[in-house]
Amino acid sequence: MSTTPLTSRPIAPSSPASSVQPARSGAGSADLNLLRTFLAVYRAGTFTAAAPLLGLSQPTVTSQIKALEKHTGHRLFDRGPRGVEPTAYASGLASRVAEALDSLADVDDAVCASGGRAAPVHLAGPAELLCTRLLPAVAPLVAEGVHVRLEHGVPEELIDGLREGRHDLVVTTRRPRGRSFESTPLADEEYLLVASPQWARWIAQERGDQELCTALKEVPLVSYAEDMPIVRRYWRTVFGRQHPPIGPALTVPNLHDVVAALTRGAGYSVVPRSLCSDHLAAGRLVQLDDPCDGPLNTLFLVRRPGSRSNPDVARVHDALRADALCWNSPPKGRQKS
Q1: Which domains does the chain have, with CATH numbers?
Q2: Which member of 7, 106, 287, 289 has the lowest number of beta carbons within 10 Å of its beta carbon?
């Protein structure tokens, strides 16, 4: 397989202190292994993160980067407190070699040896979105023969999984800062103040002239954490106050348990619409307030660099984007106090 030469006009290093003596050869004649190591470091952001992706030790990665710097005559990375930053020359080099290296790297992964079946798509996202958003979107593709491996995690774990090559696609509430990640805003997740119908009726009867946030001091609060992060954010955004008047009467491990407790009459809380829309439509929960400026979390769909050669990754990506078009629609028959 022949490739287009990768040479280009040299770009000056970021500072005199970081200069590398010029070499006679250009990047186009470099060992492919050196270029693979370079691209892994460029995408991972650290030598430490790139090493396991390559099956190499960190000292070996460092040695290969130094060898490529000597070969090209350009410094490739500047060290920082959180990893390495590419020089201008490195960014240009990455843009020229990425597509060719990705095509080579994905040949074995994209097609299984038996039957020509595409490799499984590794998809990950927040635990509260698995059943309500991700599974409904990908289930039709699974029925058509697409293989999916679904995992959950917190935003930091999800992005680390992309960098380490464990995930092909990630849905997360934080846009990654990596320069090579392709991220697309997927939907805005709305947070709602809800309670059981019994408590909603009680609040309506007893509230009188009180503000809603004041009246809720008599209602048990359910939260998935003692410090009530979502509830406090709602109070700051909607009511202009730092926190509810009374702390949680019940804490549970996750947001699914919060919703389960509310539907059984435990009190009130703030939860994502995705977790409570069916309960609102069925009358098992009631939305207590409908502000025009309630808190939102933007969900991003992020693709791992180098996953494009697997056609099923593109199918799952497109299915999630299509399904997300209706994620922000409120359920029909929504009840409010």
Answers
A1: 16-107 (1.10.10.10), 121-186+299-324 (3.40.190.10), 189-296 (3.40.190.10)
A2: 7
